[in-house]
Design goal:
2 copies of one chain form a homodimer.
Chain A (H helix, E strand, L loop, with lengths): L1 H8 L3 H7 L1 E5 L1 H10 L3 E6 L7 H12 L4 E3 L2 H7 L8 E6 L5 H6 L5 E7 L4 H13 L4 E5 L8 H6 L3 H4 L2 E4 L1 H7 L4 E11 L10 E6 L8 H6 L2 E4 L11 H11 L4 H5 L3
Parallel strand pairs in A: 2-3, 5-6, 5-9, 6-7, 8-9, 8-10
Antiparallel strand pairs in A: 1-4, 2-4
């Protein structure tokens, strides 16, 4: 029962921050969590979990790992769930604590980190985390004003990428102190077309993407050495923020130089 | 009151198909609808609409265009709404009826069309429509098994792109009959890296993107002349489907050849 009230409590950002915990919900997300090595405090299951072979296998996997599992009613589960159609499983995990310095310290000579500058939509933030992992980013930094990366919807949308990447919440001051030789670029519709760069980029690149409606903050603009844009058709207002971030991460992927030197 | 029951009815795909109507909900979506020239049958407003200057301006805009507006209570509005936090405005529009032949007939000598092959998530479908508009696609074809492009969430996620693009629902037989000189390519993680093509593509390209979980259907694979992939880091399972579609549309944008011939 303590686990049920804990899971309910963790729907609030303040509680997640204070306890350093988060909730992973749904069959696939909990599977990814178990596979990742992130410490798991316990899990809640509703009767509906056992309705599919995959759900039943997940229950067995949880038991095998010695993770405490509490069976609750569908109504109790719904009271802790963040989704409209719960799959009957959620797990409480420990947030791997990382700082901006941890993320930037992981950057090799040709590397990228993604910086979320007041991104507000949790689905977008999760999708960006997934793209960052796909394009070899050293990690992701969420600066003040960004949605909590450990919120349930971000965790779900990241599809496991959150458990395998180094992610940090940080202030701009912490970013400044950690930046070292890395160069910050900003995504901005009025910037230079990223396609014209033909992959040219600094060895250590921090790519800042801004808020869905307002774009980059003054803080990000003031620090950006370059603003880059994705050329789109005239008369079209903009791309979805997560799509735009994905295209920029793709264009600026660290292994691009090696690719084009092949025959 | 007829408008209220109509809006409620239009939450069902069958009703939308039978009546050839759709619902656009939210301040921005209704603004985009009014600006697009798509015929509007009427609008429903709740008291909350007038709480913001932008909402009040929208009410005036609707009246100016002579669109019938019905004021309902918050509870009545919620009964027709598709969102968790309604903004107090929705409008009923007429689906512009287009066929696969209409979409493919609009393709110039260097053009692209997007084909949705059993894409299921309405947010992904709407985001893909938005990307297709941004990268100059002639239109979008949703083949059998794809989510209804006129569902409320697709309409919202498309951010107006749906009202400005030629979109069609079609069977594979209709696609076959309309394909003409266009070449169909499929998005597939095991295909050739799209980055190696350096923008080489047929003049008329139909790009098929598959279901979020299952990928391309056998129908699409059987028709695809080429399968293209986005190279991602080892150990990462996949990109979000809408991000992947966005990157491919970007890489294969019709104006790319003209871009790289510039100094």
């Amino acid at each position: 029962v303590r686990l049920l009230s804990l899971a309910r409590d963790l729907r609030r950002r303040r509680a997640r921050e204070r306890q350093g915990l988060f909730v992973a919900e749904g069959v696939r997300t909990v599977e990814e969590l178990l596979a990742s090595g992130v410490p798991v405090r316990g899990a809640l299951a509703a009767p509906s979990l056992d309705g599919t072979p995959r759900g039943a296998a997940l229950r067995a996997g949880i038991a095998e790992r010695g993770v405490p599992l509490l069976d609750v009613s569908d109504a109790e589960f719904a009271s802790a769930s963040d989704t409209d159609s719960p799959q009957g499983i959620l797990a409480v995990g420990e947030q791997p604590r990382a700082t901006a310095a941890d993320v930037l310290g992981r950057m090799g000579e040709s590397s990228c980190a993604l910086l979320l500058d007041a991104v507000q939509d949790p689905g977008n933030a999760g999708t960006m985390l997934r793209s960052a992992a796909a394009f070899g980013a050293a990690g992701v930094i969420a600066v003040t004003g960004t949605v909590d990366l450990w919120g349930a919807k971000v965790v779900r949308s990241a599809m496991g990428a959150l458990f395998r990447q180094v992610v940090a919440h940080a202030s701009w001051e912490e970013v400044d102190a950690a930046l070292g030789g890395a160069e910050l670029w900003g995504a901005d519709g009025a910037g230079e077309p990223v396609s014209r760069l033909h992959g040219e980029r600094p060895g250590r690149l921090v790519l800042a993407v801004g808020n869905e409606g307002a774009g980059l903050s003054a803080d990000a603009r003031g620090r950006a050495r370059r603003l880059v844009a994705i050329p789109i058709a005239p008369g079209v207002e903009s791309l979805n923020a997560a799509v735009a971030a994905g295209i920029l991460l793709y264009e600026l992927r660290p292994w691009r130089a090696a690719e084009s030197s092949r025959p």
